[in-house]
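Archive entry: two folds, one per protein. Generate the first.
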Amino acid sequence: MNKNIVIIGGGPAGMEAASQLMLLGYSPIIIEKTSALGGHLARWDRLFPDRGSAKGLLDELFVKLNGANIFYDSDIVSINRLNDSYNIILSNGITVIAQAVLIATGFNLFDARKKEEYGYGIYNKVITNADLEAYFKNGSDERIDESGIKRIGFVHCVGSRDEKACNRQCSKVCCITALKQAIELKEKFPESVIYCFYMDLRLFGRKYEDIYLSAQKDFGIRFIRGRVSEASEDIDGNVVIKAEDTLTGKPLKVTLDLLVLMAGMSANPDANRLAGMLSLAIDSDGFLQSYDNVAYIHRSKKKGIFYAGTCTGPKTLPETLSEARSAALDIHNYLKNSDYGG
């Protein structure tokens, strides 16, 4: 095909969309701001619900890109609408003319330091879900004393469903990720006691409820409905948290050897910067606003601009990959029919 398609973002959405477009006969161009593909997936160890290898999936996605055009360490300097295409200037000086653009810039992990009451970046034994996953992947973290792990706490909804954090949306994957990680820690430290502090559990996916029941029955993980109000550090360097069990109405004070904050998804500033260049709509939650939230979530209201993945809101990995395939087909139809699209 002699029509250029530029994909901005080399995470799972961008990779899957590119491979599907290649099957359709195109030679898409992936623009990735870092030196490697994969996005957040490249930093993950195991995936829910079956705890499959994140690297295994990433390798599968990468193999399908054999022969693809990829610009690494490249950012968008400017992007302008021409008659029937877009003029894109990259930070490396290259200019690309594209008939269609797919934005797949993904999400940012909420900065847990903004929730100062939990002590991330202040207390040594407070980490995030991403830190814990890196520990599983790499095998070490100086903040985790493997010889002294007896009590572990998980705090759900850190930076999600939080008006003060300016993130009202549910991040969709935090509950099931907490269950996965709690089970993995229990397997690694079988004598430990693990608590999950939650507002309410949102386990909508297939097998998710089974994992929750197994976490309770098979692994003895304790679920406490109630927000953690604050964390502090005792003289021994352990984390002391205060919370309320809203089911019993009793206050709690628990000393932990490790506190894990389930940081949620936030809008990526890179997507918002592109939105400014192209006059794209941004929704109230900070994510890009798609054509609609039912049939065309992968399409913008600007002709020739398409979306895939979490640039339009929190999604699971299967949803992201499915949306990338749908976007690729939509782009194909758009390019075949000049009057197609909004």
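Generate the second and append.
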Amino acid sequence: MYIASGNLFIGTFTLDIGNVLRATKFGAPFTHIPTSIQGYYKYKAGDIFTVKGEPDTSRRDICDIYAVFYETDDNVNSLDGTNVFDSPNLISVARINNAKETDQWTEFSIPFETRPGKSIDPQKLEDGVYNVAIVFASSIKGDLFEGAVGSTLYIDEVELNYTDPEK
């Protein structure tokens, strides 16, 4: 196995060597409407960026911070590394777009952006049909075995902001 990104997430992990992208199941039931995720981070990239074990001196590692809100159904109980950003079940996504290396605590505040044509059904929300996942990864493409050994992401004071549906 090549290196994989160190990460912290809401969900579960079941080892599946045959399909590592499906091993991580993102999300837990959520009965509110997420509006933003905020907190602080520090990040230091490792020295040697690699792609599937091969050094690539033209690239430098960077972290990833994101949250997704999605609908579950008979076919989709959770999202995984194969569909976390492109599942048709996605309702909204909050993803950092300006992550940088920093040795100082750096504030982030990322709004959830609703996908085109998507809406939240208040009854489904009340029934627990929606899930939310929050993910912090030391390498933005660690799931594809791209990153640097030693990349380190610290996080602190994370808040998931939300509203309740109007009934």
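Annotation attached to the second fold: The chain has one helix and 14 strands. The chain has a mean pLDDT of 90.
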